Amino acid sequence: MQLTLKKYQSIVFDCDGVVLDSNQVKTEAYFRTAKQLGATDAQAQALVDYHVKLGGISRYHKFEWYLREVLNQPITAQAVQALLDEFARELEVGLMECAVAEGLENLRSETPQANWMILSGGDQQEIRTLFAKRNLVKYFDGGLFGSPDNKDTVLAREIASGNLKLPALFVGDSKYDFEAATRAGLDFVFLSDWTEVADWQTYCQNNHIRVCANINQLNDCKLSGG
Question: What whole-number distance in Å separates Cα of residue 15 and Cα of residue 22?
């Protein structure tokens, strides 16, 4: 069955790997951040592996895990902030240069009935600043949201406030995106072109998830494993 975009009152987009081709940018930034702060290659790779495994989860959680499980250090506000600050420096250039998904403007014009929002695992203020610099804010009349609040918290809050109206669609590229969408009662489409989920084909088939290559092909999504 073909996806009917005009039935949705709200469309929620993950950022990295969906609107921006920035997954690899962030993965590399995690490695460089750890190395800049004194990690071995093995420690830095452990952080990268955890980041890829938990796509869509806040960097705050990942850095707390890294301090506790890899460095065996206490989780202090100062230690977490040092990681956050270095990570932001590493990301700044890459996020300004990475590709924006083709077809975004056309899709916006095809869905005038829906308010659009960004829901990212990335830092909320960082996303708002980046989207302003890259002239993308104009598409997302429903707002730009990110960490430290997790996606479950934001979805529940925006539904309760009436900003996120059902029926709604979540467009993502991670397992967590699908799980958060399902818990909140949103339909979901998985975008495969830029995902870092290694077993995405099997995961989508097993969970009967609708799959599409990218935003430009959203009108032609197919149901996987249906």
Answer: 8
